[in-house]
Amino acid sequence: MSLLGWLFWGCNAVVALVGMLQAARSWTGSGKWGLATPGGWIWVWHAVGVGLVPFIGWSPWHLVWWFPVGFVVCTTLARVLYRFGWLEP
User: Fold this and answer.
1) Which residue blocks in 1-89 are alpha helix, DSSP H?
2) Where does residue 57 rank: exposed (0-12), middle (13-18), buried (19+ CB within 10 A)?
3) What pLDDT, on a 0 to 100 scale, did the predictor assign at position 89?
4) CA neighbours within 13 Å on the CB side: how many for 57?
5) The pLDDT of residue 4
6) What's the CA gap between 32 and 65, in Å, rounded?
7) What is the mean pLDDT of each run of 10 residues along the chain (89 residues)?
8) Which 3 state secondary structure label does DSSP give 2?
9) Which residues in 17-46 are b (16+ Cβ under 10 Å) and which e?
10) What is the dihedral of CA 8, 14, 19, 24, to 10 degrees?
11) How far is the C-alpha of 6 from the C-alpha of 34, rounded, in Å?
């Protein structure tokens, strides 16, 4: 991986960590823990992607699409779980 790739990966790692920490310290209006909401899931998704990049040997530029796809996946999963009654609003 090039130096620019490692810098991009490092920035993504910091963003994922800060996002997870902020979600972990927050509570929704209904008293739900921030990481237990779809908004918190996206940061976990991003952290998993950051961890997979060096492990699998992908280019760190895969993270450019990983975050937007994760937003769609987490939002869709939340809607499905809500429809079936497995997730409270």
Assistant:
1) 3-24, 38-56, 63-83
2) exposed
3) 67
4) 0
5) 93
6) 29
7) 90 94 85 82 92 90 89 90 81
8) coil
9) eebbeebeeeeeeeeeebbebbbbbbbbbb
10) 150
11) 29
pLDDT given at position 28: 78
- Beta bridge partner(s), residue 33: 27
- The reported pLDDT for the residue numbered 21 is 92
Q: Which stretch of DSSP H or E encloses residue 35?
A: none
The per-residue pLDDT for 1 is 72
> What are the backbone angles phi and psi of residue 87, rounded to the nearest 5°?
-130, 130
- From residue 22, give the alpha-carbon distance in Å to each of 27, 43, 75: 10, 10, 19
Structure tokens at 29: 């209006």
Q: Who contacts 87 (Cβ-Cβ below 8 Å, separation ≥6)?
A: 78, 81
* Measured CA distances, 77 to 3, 10, 32, 36, 83 (Å): 36, 28, 17, 13, 10
